[in-house]
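Subject: design request, 187 residues
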């Protein structure tokens, strides 16, 4: 199964992705985590990405797409994957579709974790990651509305919405429910 998780920053995608990944035995591929490990290891890609993460801007598509395609081509991703934080622009979605078409594979579901902006700001301030200052959070939310939300139209045929306001376990149950509904309705 190939699943995309989308939603605003702070919606809890990463937490849910980890639970889904162990339940479904699929690798959890998070672009945020990939960038943070490149930065920690001091790679070239990490150096290029760092200023964008620090500012709450998207890393340029050519850097991001190359990194993800390389990760998706790894052996452990051939049977399926959970993509968390990618695609985040329509150009990234188009590039992903090209990759999938070459491999003759398809995405099964896009889970959209929906939650109000005000609710996520509080969550992220509590989380205290380096890029979780109020200004950077606001910037990330703006970028999300401008660049990432248009993907909901792009993926309308595969989209299932998950209410991401609540307790972690509750949201997980909703995600599993949404996923089985979506998979059951696949022709
Ligand atoms: P959050 O969901 O809280 O925004 P992430 O870990 O998903 O956190 O992303 C952190 C940062 O990594 C983003 O603000 C952005 O700079 C960069 N990033 C992650 N995914 C992408 C992507 N698909 N395209 C461009 N930049 C990305």
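Subject: RE: design request

Done. Sequence follows.
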């Amino acid at each position: 199964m190939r699943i995309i998780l989308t939603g605003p920053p702070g919606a809890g995608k990463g937490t849910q992705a980890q639970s889904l990944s162990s339940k479904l035995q699929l690798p959890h591929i998070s672009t945020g985590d990939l960038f943070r490990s490149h930065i920690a290891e001091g790679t070239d890609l990490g150096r290029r990405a760092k200023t964008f993460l620090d500012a709450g801007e998207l890393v340029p598509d050519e850097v991001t797409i190359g990194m993800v395609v390389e990760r998706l081509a790894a052996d452990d991703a051939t049977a399926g994957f959970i993509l968390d934080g990618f695609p985040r622009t329509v150009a990234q979605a188009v590039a992903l579709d090209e990759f999938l078409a070459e491999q003759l594979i398809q995405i099964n579901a896009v889970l959209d974790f929906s939650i109000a902006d005000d609710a996520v700001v509080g969550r992220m301030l509590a989380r205290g990651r380096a890029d979780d200052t109020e200004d950077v959070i606001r910037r990330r939310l703006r970028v999300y509305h401008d660049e990432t939300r248009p993907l909901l139209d792009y993926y309308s045929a595969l989209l299932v919405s998950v209410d991401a306001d609540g307790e972690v376990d509750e949201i997980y149950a909703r995600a599993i429910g949404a996923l089985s509904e979506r998979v059951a309705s696949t022709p």
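The chain has one domain: 2-180.
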